[in-house]
Predict the structure.
Amino acid sequence: MVYKAVMQGEKLRKGPWYEEEDKQLITFVTILGDRKWDYLARVSGPYDSGGIKRCGKSCRLRWLNYLRPNIKHGDISIEEEQIILQLHEQWGNKWARIARSLPGRTDNEIKNYWRTHLRRKIMQAREQENLQCAREDGKQDFLFQKVDFDVQTYEAGEHKPVDDTSGTSNTCSDALGFSSSAVTNSPYDVRFFDWDYNCTESCISYTARNSDDNDVWGWSDSIWDMN
DNA sequence: AACTAGTACAACCGCATCGGT
DNA sequence: GACCGATGCGGTTGTACTAGT
């Protein structure tokens, strides 16, 4: 058996978990609880006597992200997606905190989902937005009389126009429901910031052009589904 | 069919924080 | 209060899978 051969030839395993390892881990967590991971890994004993050849940290991660009860496996729903977006906007990359608001979802899952799905969608939405901005270049002079962007205020985390008398939101990131604090909280978000910063000079508010729609989360259908 | 590029996700790593001594 | 091991968290990497050529 490949599994046995591998297990017997190693001291402390890394990499993907085998089904047998999962079963062992579940057994030991049931007996010892899900707190003392190093202890659990140690007292489980050598592989030959049914032990787990993993460090406590690895056991903990496997349990929390995959094996523990009530974990939801499968696609993240539209509702969950909107909650993630909303909370990320609010808290930034606090994945564990966000995960606590989504029963059955793990911080790792949310983090991965953000990176692979939402980040790309936002980029696409913004690119589309930018294209539209470029096409409407001729109208910009007129619009910038209403939206006067203050870079210092933006960088200070107060992402607002100097003159908001039009009563509409402003800039591309506001249109997407992202504050600068959330946008600048991570390496990959910094790229949003750079992009957004560049675009603010030439970009027109989404909501300014869609002033009837003030529901921040109502854009999921219209902006997300750009394909 | 073979290769390549892109995507998704599980797992690892390093650092911060917590809790016991 | 200082130290040290355990735990938690966020960023990153590795790899399997899929689609395109």
In short: The radius of gyration of chain A is 24 Å. DSSP finds 14 helices and no strands in chain A. Residues 15-16, 35-39, 56-57, 60, 64, 93-97, 107-108, 111, 186-188 of chain A lie near DNA strand C (CB under 10 Å from a C1').
